[in-house]
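Is this the right way to post structure tokens for a design question? Let me know if I should format differently. Anyway, here goes:
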């Protein structure tokens, strides 16, 4: 055999009899399994040794039947006690390696000691006693090998130290039975060693697989944790998102209910964000949202002793969960601090933007008894703040609860209302900005309830949407509006509002088309006004409905422009004829440079896209003059006329004709 091969075989053989120190995971697994079986090994040694010693008490010297087995048994008992005490200790890899090596070394003298004692005892017995010694050594070594199977090196040492002398000794006796036992033991030991080697290899593979599996599990858990974090994180502001907010609300509410303490929900809406978003673009709007979120978060983190969970709910809306038994004063103080921070100037490149925020709070248990109802109360508080106390903090109260009950009354009465008799139509002129001739009328609905009296459209239109009556209401009003428009001069157009439910209904706008065809009014004299909210409700279906109305010849106006979240995207994706600029930009057009710039930009946009620009809410001559200079096409507002009943339109148009004729005569003169 070549020298290199001989050396490799010798090295492989040496590795079998040493503790592996190059694989800490395998070494630790060996130790954990081995330490559980060591007490069993020593129990086998002690019980079998005592049984053999007892057999030889009357035939062998005392030093062989009492002293030597006593010493060996005490040694085994001490080792058993030591291992039992060590089982629950946390060990380092170095400690484990040291203990395994010590066990390896101790196996040799212990195995040799028990073997030598057995051989010394053998000559004193009769054939039965001698057979017991042979049986004792064979069974004990098998038990020891099985107990040491997780420490291969120690098991092999026991096999060599005991089995080799065992076979030679009993073969040398010349006794056929003992020779047969020796050969049988040799074969069994060989089989056990084979099983031991295979088991050890599989055990090492199992440890490696477990390590790999644990690594995969750790990677999977890390990925799961990251996915959970991302699923609960707003990608723009890196704040907790809506999903995380409602999870926190549910947890906080359950805790407050259990401890019988207060918890509050707050909803924040940024006032003035939409104009910034539309005027300066979405990139600037996103940066404003990020900065506003950062400021609010700093206030929440520094607001003690209450704990405040803060999240972005979507758009320019944020949510708060205030824990720690807050009262109304705490909530007002928190709202004031947030408002003060949000109002600070935002300097973004060359643009200086200003914001404020409205906040609605609701407090458990005063306002609601469930987390969902508490959020709804906070949302209604915000709605009230934006309508009546913009830029302020509103806490849900008994008065607001009464308003909600009033909404319920409106909904119930609306279900039984007779639209043909209780609904009135009024019309507000839409005037050419330069000639001051009326170009059309916008139709507005008024509800005169037999029980409630005059109900504002701001109350009954949302109620009709909530209870599913808006479509039949729209159809009834459209029939009457078209009939009224047939009595007007041919150049006067009718402007009619459609809701999200009208343009996004599953069955489409076929009922509206049928009404138009039956009315006898040419479609080209009809403008349908659709809000951005209606468009975003279901953009694809809304786009299809608008395209159908456009194909009939109807005009399409985008109403309340500037109050939606993605106005510019709607402008270029829809076949629009007019854009109606929201009245909120007109009120301070001559005092606020920002409002002036916004309307100027919108008018320029309409001109570039060949879309007519209609401005609502004009109440003074100064506003009209400014809008003319900015290039706005049409004007609507109290400066020309308030909404009027249908039978007043003829007189209004006649008065307008006389006024304009008189003005023209003065110019000629």
């Amino acid at each position: 055999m070549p020298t290199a091969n001989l050396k490799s075989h010798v090295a492989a053989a040496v590795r079998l009899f040493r503790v592996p120190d190059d694989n800490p995971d395998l070494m630790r697994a060996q130790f954990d399994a081995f330490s559980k079986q060591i007490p069993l090994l020593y129990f086998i040694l002690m019980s079998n040794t005592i049984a053999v010693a007892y057999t030889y008490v009357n035939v062998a010297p005392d030093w062989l039947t009492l002293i030597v087995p006593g010493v060996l048994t005490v040694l085994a008992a001490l080792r058993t006690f030591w291992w039992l005490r060590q089982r629950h200790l946390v060990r380092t890899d170095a400690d484990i390696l040291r203990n395994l090596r010590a066990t390896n070394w101790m196996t040799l003298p212990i195995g040799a000691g028990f073997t030598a004692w057995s051989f010394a005892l053998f000559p004193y017995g009769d054939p039965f006693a001698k057979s017991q010694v042979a049986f004792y050594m064979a069974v004990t070594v098998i038990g020891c090998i099985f107990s040491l199977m997780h420490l291969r090196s120690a098991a092999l040492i026991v096999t060599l130290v005991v089995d080799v002398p065992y076979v030679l000794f009993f073969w040398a006796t010349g006794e056929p039975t003992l020779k047969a036992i020796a050969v049988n033991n040799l074969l069994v030991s060989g089989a056990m060693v084979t099983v031991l080697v295979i088991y050890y290899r599989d055990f090492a593979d199992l440890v490696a697989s477990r390590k790999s599996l644990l690594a995969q599990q750790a990677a999977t858990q890390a990925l799961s944790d990251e996915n959970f974090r991302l699923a609960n994180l707003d990608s723009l502001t890196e704040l907790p998102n809506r999903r995380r907010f409602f999870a926190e609300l549910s947890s906080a509410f359950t805790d407050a209910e259990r401890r019988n303490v207060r918890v509050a929900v707050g909803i924040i809406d940024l006032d003035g964000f939409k104009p910034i978003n539309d005027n300066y673009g979405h990139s600037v709007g996103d940066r404003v949202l990020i900065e506003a979120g950062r400021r609010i978060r700093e206030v929440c983190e520094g607001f003690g002793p209450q704990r405040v969970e803060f999240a972005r709910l979507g758009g320019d809306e944020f949510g708060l969960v205030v824990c720690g038994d807050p009262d109304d004063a705490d909530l007002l103080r928190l709202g004031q601090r947030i408002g003060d921070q949000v109002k600070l100037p935002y300097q973004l490149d060359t643009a200086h933007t200003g914001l404020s925020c409205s906040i609605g709070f609701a407090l458990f248990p005063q306002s609601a008894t469930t987390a969902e109802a508490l959020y709804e109360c906070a949302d209604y508080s915000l709605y009230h703040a934006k309508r009546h106390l913009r830029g302020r903090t509103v806490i849900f109260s008994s008065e607001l609860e009464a308003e909600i009950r009033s909404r319920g009354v409106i909904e119930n009465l609306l279900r039984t209302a007779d639209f043909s008799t209780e609904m009135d139509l009024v019309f507000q002129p839409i005037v050419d900005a330069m000639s001051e001739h009326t170009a059309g009328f916008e139709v507005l609905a008024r509800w005169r309830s037999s029980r409630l009296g005059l109900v504002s459209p701001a109350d009954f239109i949302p109620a009709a949407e909530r209870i599913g009556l808006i479509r039949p209401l729209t159809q009834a009003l459209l029939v009457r509006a078209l009939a009224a428009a047939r009595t007007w001069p041919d150049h006067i157009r009718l402007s009619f509002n459609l809701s999200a439910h009208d343009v996004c209904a599953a069955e489409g706008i076929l009922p509206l088309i049928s009404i138009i065809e039956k009315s006898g009014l040419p479609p080209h004299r009809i403008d349908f006004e659709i809000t951005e909210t209606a468009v975003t409700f279901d953009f694809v279906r809304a786009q299809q409905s608008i395209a159908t109305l456009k194909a009939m010849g109807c005009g399409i106006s985008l109403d309340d422009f500037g109050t939606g979240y993605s106005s510019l995207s709607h402008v270029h994706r829809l076949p629009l004829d007019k854009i109606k600029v929201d009245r909120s930009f007109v009120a301070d057009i001559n005092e606020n440079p920002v409002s002036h710039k916004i309307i100027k930009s919108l008018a320029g946009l309409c001109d570039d896209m060949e879309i007519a620009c209609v401005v609502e809410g004009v109440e003074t001559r100064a506003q009209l003059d400014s809008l003319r200079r900015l290039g706005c096409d049409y004007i609507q507002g109290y400066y020309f006329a308030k909404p009027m009943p249908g039978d007043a339109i003829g007189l209004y148009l006649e008065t307008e004709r006389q006024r304009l004729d008189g003005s023209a005569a003065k110019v000629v003169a």
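Format looks fine. Someone answered above. Worth noting: The radius of gyration is 46 Å. The mean pLDDT is 81.
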